[in-house]
Amino acid sequence: MLRVPARSFVALVGSVVIGALIAGACGSDKIPQAVHADAGSTIALASTTVPSTVSAQAQKEAQAMYETITKRGKPKITVPAAPATKLEITDLVVGTGEVVKRSATVLAHYVGVDQKTGKQFDASWDRGQPATFPLNQVIAGWTNGIPGMKVGGRRELVIPGDQAYGASPPSGSGIGPNDTLVFVIDLIAVQQG
Predict the structure, then answer these.
(1) Catalytic one among 18, 121, 175, 179?
(2) Which of 17, 35, 67, 117 is most buried, by the most CB atoms less than 10 A from its CB?
(3) Cross-strand partners of 90
(4) 133 annotated active-site
(5) Whole-model pTM above 0.85?
(6) Residue 121 bears catalytic tag
(7) Which domains, from first to last, does the chain contain?
């Protein structure tokens, strides 16, 4: 799996956030790769290194949401019996914060499971660090399935293969060609684009 330095989520947390789902170009389709920071990195949601443009209140709110979602814990995923034919969106917990727009960058914990095998292929929860990523640089199921979600919410996405990795899933991911993927996402913070 590709390893690069973590990206900064300056507008909301102003410090290093571990992990990202970013896209690599493949023709006109976007094929995301899971990206992780070095193991020695840490997350500090309320940091004294936050630029002056980030209010103390925003730092406090992001830290409180992170703590709330951490207490909620890693979700258990039940996979559907049949592959999805269209994107299915279910709010398991409706958030109370800001609504995500399509052009946003989000900070979230997530779990991903392959519907065909029932096996987990990725989880930020297992790394102990949420991920940050721009919605215009991830698989179509995330780009289309996260907008409208509110900060603090937990959403399940059942993503058909054509909105996931299609015929060319990442090598070594355990995801088969055109597999339906199930994600449960806990939204910690959002930076509107």
Answers:
(1) 121
(2) 17
(3) 156
(4) no
(5) no
(6) yes
(7) 20-191 (3.10.50.40)
